[in-house]
Design a protein that fits this description.
- With about 90 residues, the protein is mainly β.
- It is about 0% helix and about 70% strand.
- A hairpin with a 2-residue loop joins strand 4 and strand 5.
Length: about 90
């Protein structure tokens, strides 16, 4: 199943962050996403980046994540590569 979402996070001081993401479930355990995200400060050039990643469900409460992003605009960080482990705690 796929999902498209867009968010505008309101104004945080002079900053106006926003994101648009597409997600897709390849199997019941593997999902991927792609997103555009950035922010604009008053009287400054905006920062725009693109990223993608995947998530793999190892167990019903344990997930591995990997993602990467690149800056598309002249301003801002160059990008990142990230990995993670998510552990769900049930009540």
């Amino acid at each position: 199943m796929g999902l498209c979402s867009a968010q505008w996070y309101g104004t945080a001081g002079n900053r106006q962050p926003a994101a648009v993401a597409l997600t897709y479930e390849l199997t019941d355990k593997l999902g991927v996403y792609a997103e555009l995200f950035g922010e604009k400060e008053a009287n400054q050039e905006g920062v725009l980046s693109a990223g993608s990643g995947l998530a793999y469900l190892l167990l019903h409460n344990l997930q591995l994540d990997a993602s990467a992003a690149l800056r598309l605009s002249a301003q801002g960080d160059r990008g990142y590569i990230s990995g993670g482990l998510c552990w769900g705690i049930s009540r």
